[in-house]
Structures are given as C-alpha cells and as structure tokens.
Amino acid sequence: MMPKLRQYWTCQLLGWFSYTFIIWVLNELKGEELDIYLVSFLMISFSLGLLISHTYRELVLQLDWLNLKIVDLIPRVILTSILCGLAFFALHTLFFDVLIVQQEIVMVTLEILQNTLSLSIIFVLWSLMYFLFHFIQNYRKEEIKNLRWQALSTEVELNKLKSQLNPHFIFNSMNSIRALVDENPEHSKDSITRLSNILRSSLLMGRQQVILLSEELQLVNDYLSLEKTRFEERLMVRYNIADDTKEHKVPPMLLQTLVENGIKHGISKLAEGGTIEISARKVGSDLKLQIENSGHSREGTDREPGFGLLNSRQRLFLLYGEQGELTISNSAKGTVIVEVTIPEKVKEIKVLKSNIDDKTEEL
Question: What backbone torsions phi and psi does residue 110 show, to the nearest 5 degrees?
Fold first, then answer.
C-alpha cells in the first residue's frame, strides 16, 4: 500500500494538473493558441492550487477538524472554501493580470469578485473528497478494531470451552479406571496406559481449532475401548462412517464429548446397558454426524441442559455461526439421537493486516 504522504501528494498533483488541463482544453475549444501568456496562466493556477489547498490541509490538521461532527464541519468548510477561492484569485490576479499582463487594478478587483464564487466551488469539492477519504479511513480503522476484538473474544471463548473439556474428560475416565482397580489390577494398568495415550492426543488436539474427522474418530475409539472395560457386555458400539467424510474437519473432542454424554446420561443408567451408534455422511458440502444411544433424553423439560450439549453448542456457534447445528431427540424405538451439522469451512473472522497505525500521520 502506498504511504499516506505519498498518496496525498499524488492526489494533489493529479487533481490540480487535471484542473489546469481542463482550462487548457476549454481555451483550445475557444480557438485560443497556446502562447506564453496561457502557459503562465496555467502554471500560476497549478502552483496556487497546490499552495492554497496544502495550506488548507495544514489548517484542518492543526484545528483537528477531522474529529468534528458533520454539523460542525459544514459551516467551517463552506467559509474556508470561500476564503481559499478569494485568496486564489487575488494572488492569481496579482501575479498574472497585474505583473504579467499589466491590467488596471480597478478591472482586476471586479474580476476577483466575479470569479471567487466559481473557484470556491472547486475548494468545496476538494474538501468533500478530502474529508470523505478520511471518513472512509476512520471507518476502516473502526472496522479493523471491531474485527480484532471479535476474533480475540472468539479465541478466548473457544480456549475456555476447550479447557473445560479436559478436566471433565479426565474425571470421568478416572472413575472408569477406579472401578477396575480391585476387580482386575492388570486390566486397570492397561486402561491407565490407554488413558495416557488419549490424554496426550487430546492435549495436542486442543491446540488446534479443527482437526480431521479421522483423527477425532481415533480418539473416540480409544475412549470407547476404555469404557468397554468398565461396562463389558453392557456396552455395544457400532460405526457407520462414510469414506468421504474422514477428511472433513471438525472441532476437536466434539464427537468424543457427545459420545461420552450418551454413555453417561443414557447407557450407564440402564441396568441392561445399551448400544451407541456413530454415523457420518456428507450432505452437499456439510458433514452430518449422528450419535444414537439407548436411553431417553429429558432436554426440552425444565431440566438444565447437560454440560456436554451446552459446551458443544457453544463451540459450534463460535466456529460456524448459525450454520453449525446440534439437535437432540427421542426416537420411537427408545433411543436418543443427537444430530450435528458441521459446515465445510470455519466462519471467517478476518483480522485484517493493516498499515494503519494509531500514530500514523493523517493525510
């Protein structure tokens, strides 16, 4: 991006060059030849335009007009534009009409009054473009600040939610292992080793915003193997995973949390145990996950939603907005069905890299 000061002078030079070019074209249309007088006229016009508009800019910066409200700014712009127009023609007439053409001072005064209004309009247009540019720049600055704040708050919220998962997961897993210590010490040692592998994977995953479904499924498989140690024949697991879903990216530990939720609130409460089935399929570009477990959901009643469901819904919303969905329902065959919709891409919160610094010089 072009530095601001260079951008300012580029616009200044091009703007006043265009003004003098238009004057030259109008004189050509009138049939006037390009002589020494016309060249002098154009050079003086170009130089005075740069000088007076630049002085105007310095006044704006010194008086901090860029931070004024529109209502307060308009009368100042109109008055200053009239004064700039008057100064332009007074100096132009002095240099060109009096010193070069040597016109009488009485006629010069009348010409100044006649032309002040027309050139005041030029300075009004200059003011409009200058202040409009700055209003757009300030709007972009505010937009960048808002985006940065939004991205930061989202990141903080996601990290908080993910940090809640690990202690919750460890607590439940340790309870499972504790039940084996007296019954089967050897098996409990194997389970502890399995748990350490799961924790290592979950900690690595926790640093990422999304992971492949295949990686999440590996974590879920390890977790269910650990749970089968506790439930034995009371826990049956079925997978129905379409091959084209394994490369789809999902929030880490989302599926594991929902599976854990199904076991804790569904299967563990049934004397005969039950079955948990995990399905994944593609619908368009979206991934549809389904976790079906034996039991009955009480969501929708006066009961507060469980930690797993609440955490999962919050993470989906932060990452995908309204496009990410999680629903839970009871089926006619006595099972609970949790359905999750995960879009292909995470919601974009672009933190724009800007060359705009808080202390960057104003144009």
Answer: -65, -40
Residues 287-302 have pLDDT tens digits of 999 999 998 887 655 4
Contact predicate 346/210, CB 8 Å: yes
Whether residue 17 has pLDDT greater than 70: yes
**CA angle, 6 as apex, 125 and 66 as ends, to 5°?**
45
pLDDT digits 0-9 by tens, 308-357:
788 788 888 878 888 899 999 999 888 999 999 999 887 654 433 333 34
Burial of 29 (0-12, 13-18, 19+ CB in 10 A): exposed
**pTM: predicted TM-score of the whole model, two decimal places:** 0.53
Q: What is the mean pLDDT of residues 149-155?
A: 57
- Which pairing describes strands 325-330 and 335-342: parallel, antiparallel, or unpaired? antiparallel
3-state secondary structure the chain: CCCHHHHHHHHHHHHHHHHHHHHHHHHHHCCCCCCHHHHHHHHHHHHHHHHHHHHHHHHHHHCCHHHCCHHHHHHHHHHHHHHHHHHHHHHHHHHHHHCCCCCCHHHHHHHHHHHHHHHHHHHHHHHHHHHHHHHHHHHHHHHHHHHHHHHHHHHHHHHHHHHHHHHHHHHHHHHHHHHHHCCCHHHHHHHHHHHHHHHHHHHHHHCCCCEEHHHHHHHHHHHHHHHHHHHHHHEEEEEEECHHHCCCEECCCHHHHHHHHHHHHCHHHCCCCEEEEEEEEEECCEEEEEEEEECCCCCCCCCCCCHHHHHHHHHHHHHHHHHCEEEEEECCCCEEEEEEEECCCCCCCCCCCCCCCCCCCCC
β-sheet bridge partners, residue 292: 277, 337
Rounded-to-integer distance, Cα 292 and Cα 336, Å: 6
